[in-house]
Each structure stands twice: as structure tokens, then as C-alpha cells.
DNA sequence: ACGCTGTTTTGATATCTGTCAAGGTAGAGG
DNA sequence: CCTCTACCTTGACAGATATCAAAACAGCGT
């Protein structure tokens, strides 16, 4: 975690919530969680996430050429994912490696659990 | 579905994908899925979603006063959720009722399933 | 020390987004 | 028909975002 320089999302604070479909979220919870969804709400970042999540770790040098975008732009998107708390980065020598933070994934997955939803939304 | 006037997200097309952590997403899949996350990436919309998902259905007249925002603004956010395919609306007399589309929820939840992830991202 | 490669930061710009006020549509009830 | 309420659309605008070029930073190899 060489580059955790920023006030990244606190996943412990996020981890408090029951599934979306169980109880309305208060404003504070929503303000904590929305940035995670927002970070995934861009096609480039979604692909970056899936590339990183598909392997134990991924070098920026392998991510950048997969897109028709400049290096700085990829770096920007990676920063958004980092600041959302979805990935971690580590510099090892010349290269920087990215890894997913699985607890963030689990958290979002739990929010989207619909199994305990009220009748109409589980049958509609 | 009185107001399904628009080229709403096709959930069948979205439903194709394996979890993020299993295989990189291609650009086309990402373009289909990202708008769903994006729609949830705003605190107001996240709260609207959770309010709607917590009950069988919800009247706009009960959603609007829960926020410190104008009617048009709430209407705008509901439209974003509708066009993302996350909710359905139906007018019954004077009022408009919103319901979640549970298949969209299930889809996003499946994408975030991390149980089949490669070693480093399930242990880090 | 110098230059080379990989990555991030800065600065600039075009586009997108959230918000409200004003105006429009839809149904209910005289 | 008229009016009232509920909801949506339009238009305008401030602030955020995606993008790139240029510049800065970090290691490596010479």
C-alpha cells in the first residue's frame, strides 16, 4: 500500500448497512456508499476493475495498452478506484501493481442482496 | 409501466456476464453494465432506491418530502433510475408508484460475487 | 551523473450532471 | 368546463468529470 496517501473511503464505516432492499438508507450511509457505486459507474473503470479482479494482481503496464486512452487517463481512473477504496496499489521497482480489496466487493454485494426483500419486489 | 417511453437498459443483454472477479469484461458488456452502477452512484438515488426496495411499492408523494430537494429534482433522479432499468413506474389515478425490478438487483449482485476470485483478491 | 522507461500530477478544455424555477400534462372533483 | 393537486419536462446554470498534452517524479541501467 505504498500510495495510500489520501483520505480513502473508510470501509469499516461502510460495512454497517443492511441490504438496500431491507431498510431505507439514511443520508449518512448513502453518502459513504454512493462513491463506491459511482466509481464502478464508468465503463473504463468497470473494465479496469474486472481486469484487476480476475488475477491476483495486475501491473499498470498491462492495463494501459488494453485501452485506447492515454496513460494519464488510465492513471486517473485507477486513482478514482483507489480513492473509492476498491483497489490497492503497490510500487515494486519500476512498476506499480494493483490488487482488489475484496472487502469492498463483499460490502457492495451485500447491499444488493435482494433475498430478504418485501413481497412485490421479489415477485414482480 | 405507464411511462416506459424510453430506450431503457435491456436487462437480458446485461444478464450475460460472469462475476467481475472471474473474467475481464469486454467493452460492450462494460458499456451495458456501467450505467446501472452509475445510477446507484448518487446518494439521493441510493436513498430513493433503498426506500423503494424496502416496500412493495412506493408513491412519489411519499418519496419527495423525504428530501430537501425540489419535486423536479426528485423526478429527475427517478427518471435516471427508471432509464437504468432499476425501477418501474406506474400511474394509478393521481399518484405514480415505483417498484424495484429485482432482476436488475440480482444481476449487479452476481457481478460483485467475489467467491470465485483468484487467490490474492480473496485473501488480501 | 545521465538518460531511459513507467507512472502520476498539473493545467486546460469540452462535456456531463445535479439543481431549481417556470411551465406543461394527467387525473379527480366540483 | 374549471380548478386543484400530483407529477413530469424544459431551460438555464454552477459545479463535476473525462480527456489529453506537458511536465514532474521514481527506479533502473549505464
Class inferred from helices and paired strands of chain A = mainly alpha
Which sequence of SSEs, written as H and E, runs from N to C of chain A? Answer: HHHEHHEEHH
Binned, the helix content of chain A reads: 40-55%
Biggest interface and its residues per chain?
A-B, 53 and 53 residues
Largest sheet of chain A: 3 strands, antiparallel
Q: What is the rounded Rg of chain A?
A: 16 Å
Given the C-alpha coordinates, what overall shape of chain A results? elongated
- Number of beta strands of chain A: 3
Q: Beta-sheet strand percentage of chain A?
A: 5-15%
Polypeptide structure, described:
The structure is a homodimer of 124-residue chains. The first copy, chain A, has 124 residues and is mainly alpha-helical. The first copy, chain A, is built from 7 helices and 3 strands. In chain A, strands 1-3-2 form a 3-stranded antiparallel sheet. In chain A, helix 3 packs across helix 5 (71-83). Chain A is elongated and about 50 Å long. At the A-B interface, helix 2, helix 3, helix 6 and helix 7 of A face helix 2, helix 3, helix 6 and helix 7 of B. Chain A binds a DNA duplex (30 and 30 nucleotides) through residues 3, 42, 44, 59-61, 64, 69-80, 91, 93-96.
Amino acid at each position: 500500500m505504498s500510495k495510500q496517501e489520501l483520505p480513502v473511503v473508510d470501509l469499516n464505516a461502510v460495512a454497517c448497512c443492511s441490504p438496500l432492499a431491507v431498510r431505507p438508507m439514511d443520508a449518512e450511509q448513502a453518502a459513504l456508499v454512493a462513491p463506491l457505486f459511482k466509481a464502478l459507474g464508468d465503463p473504463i473503470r468497470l473494465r479496469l476493475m474486472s481486469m484487476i479482479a480476475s488475477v491476483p494482481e495486475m501491473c499498470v503496464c498491462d492495463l494501459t495498452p488494453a485501452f485506447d486512452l492515454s496513460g494519464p487517463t488510465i492513471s486517473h481512473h485507477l486513482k478514482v478506484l483507489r480513492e473509492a477504496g476498491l483497489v490497492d496499489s503497490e510500487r515494486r521497482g519500476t512498476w506499480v501493481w494493483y490488487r482488489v480489496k475484496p472487502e469492498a466487493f463483499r460490502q457492495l454485494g451485500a447491499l444488493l442482496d435482494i433475498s430478504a426483500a418485501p413481497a412485490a419486489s421479489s415477485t414482480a
